[in-house]
Structure formats: C-alpha cells, structure tokens
C-alpha cells in the first residue's frame, strides 16, 4: 500500500506532462525489482547498482523510520476506476531513493 504523493510524468519531445494522484488514503501497489536496479541518494545525485532482492530492505527500513522513498517505475500497468480509484497492478522499480546509501 502506497501512501503519500504519487505522480505520473511523461515526456514527448521537449514537452513534459504531469498528473498527480492523491495517495493520502493509500493506493494498492504491486511492484517488483527491475534488472538492473539502482539505489540512489535522496536527491538522486549519486547511486549504486544493487543486487536482486535489495528493494525490500530499502522499503522496510523506510517504513520503520518513517522516511519517504522515491520510486521510478518501468513498464507500469495502471488501472483507473470511478471516484478517483487508482491502482498500480504491476511495475518494475528501476530506481529508488535510499536515505542510508553511503
């Protein structure tokens, strides 16, 4: 369950389009770790390729410490429904912030 800010960003040529979704009530999300997978600093200024299975500890630590994690999805499949219903049914996380990245 994703809670917080969620936005979709797309570029067509030099034109950027952004759609924001209110995630305060939670959005059901199913994601897997892409290959390759990059753990990045919180400002995405630096990062490192992480091994298979590295995403789960990043998410668990962030939840435990109440930290924000920024995810970049690849090949996401989305379902839009009535009254703002929105679900990420599938997606591969190619990049994620890791506040503890050294």
Which characteristics define this entry?
102 residues; mainly beta; two-stranded antiparallel sheet; 1 helix; globular
Tell me what the structure shows.
This protein has one domain (26-97). Helix content is 11%, strand content 58%. The protein contains one helix and six strands; from the N terminus they run ββββαββ. It has one helix spanning 55-65; strands at 2-12, 15-27, 32-40, 47-50, 71-80, 86-97. Strands 4-3-6-5 form a four-stranded mixed beta sheet, with no helix packed on it. β1 and β2 (15-27) form a beta hairpin. The longest helix is centred in the middle third of the chain and has 11 residues, at 55-65. The chain is globular and about 35 Å long.
Structural class: mainly beta
- Helix and strand run: EEEEHEE
Q: How much strand content do the residues show?
A: over 45%
Task: Give the overall silhouette.
Answer: globular
Task: Determine the mean pLDDT.
Answer: 81
The total number of structural domains is: 1
Q: What's the count of strands?
A: 6
The first-to-last residue Cα distance is 27 Å
What is the C-alpha radius of gyration, as a whole number of Å? 14 Å
Detail the poorly predicted runs. none
Draw up the topology in text.
Layout: E1 2-12, E2 15-27, E3 32-40, E4 47-50, H1 55-65, E5 71-80, E6 86-97
Parallel strand pairs: 3-6
Antiparallel strand pairs: 1-2, 3-4, 5-6
């Amino acid at each position: 369950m994703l809670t917080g800010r969620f936005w979709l960003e797309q570029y067509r040529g030099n034109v950027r389009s952004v759609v924001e979704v209110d995630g305060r009530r939670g959005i059901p999300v199913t994601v897997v770790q892409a290959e390759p997978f990059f753990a990045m600093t919180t400002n995405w200024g630096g990062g490192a390729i992480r091994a298979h299975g590295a995403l789960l500890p990043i998410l668990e630590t962030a939840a435990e410490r109440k930290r924000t994690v920024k995810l970049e999805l690849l090949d996401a499949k989305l379902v839009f429904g009535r009254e703002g219903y929105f679900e990420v049914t599938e997606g591969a996380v190619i990049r994620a912030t890791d506040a503890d990245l050294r």
